[in-house]
Amino acid sequence: MSCRPELVTGYVDGALDAQTTAEIEAHLGSCETCRTQAGFERELRHRLAELPPPSLPLDLEREVRRRLEHPRTPILRWALPLAASLAALLLWGRGLPAFVAWELARDHAHCFSASRVPAEGSSGLLTAASISVWPSG
């Protein structure tokens, strides 16, 4: 038999059938690593058994009953899927031709919305004059 740490743990816990227990005991006789593991787990079990029981709050039963009778729906249970859906919809919508056209028109209006651009010329012809970018209609 090869080393199988999970079976050593089952052996220490007493959770194995008789045949597997016999196989593990035979293996422990020849494997120092598994014997060390079994000894460590026995010692750990012993120390855990010696720990004092935890002290529970006096009103624990009342609080548990209250929470079971009046469960709260956490906001993340509905808000997180909603936010994820909206984000997916937004990302999907940004690729639609109508949205792209709207974004381009908005960008175009931002860049070219000024009707007059001030310009100064060094030749004297355009001193402090304004040049119309788009002909007024």
Q: How would the global form be characterised?
A: elongated
Low-confidence stretches: 126-132
Number of strands: 2
> What fraction, in percent, of the residue positions are helical?
55-70%
Biggest sheet overview: 2 strands, antiparallel
Beta-strand share of residues: 5-15%
C-alpha Rg (nearest Å) = 39 Å
Distance between the termini: 95 Å
Number of H- or I-type helical stretches: 6
What order do the SSEs take from the amino end to the carboxyl end, as H and E?
HHHHHHEE
Strand order of the largest sheet: 1-2
Q: What is the residue-mean pLDDT, rounded to a whole number?
A: 82
Structural class: mainly alpha
What do these coordinates show?
The radius of gyration is 39 Å and the shape is elongated. 63% of the residues lie in helices and 6% in strands. By secondary structure, it is mainly α. α1 (5-13) crosses α3 and α2 packs across α3. The N and C termini lie far apart (95 Å). It is built from six helices and two strands, in the order ααααααββ. A two-stranded antiparallel sheet has the order 1-2.
Topology readout:
Elements: H1 5-13, H2 18-30, H3 32-50, H4 60-69, H5 75-93, H6 97-112, E1 116-119, E2 129-132
Antiparallel strand pairs: 1-2
Helix pairs in contact: 1-3, 2-3
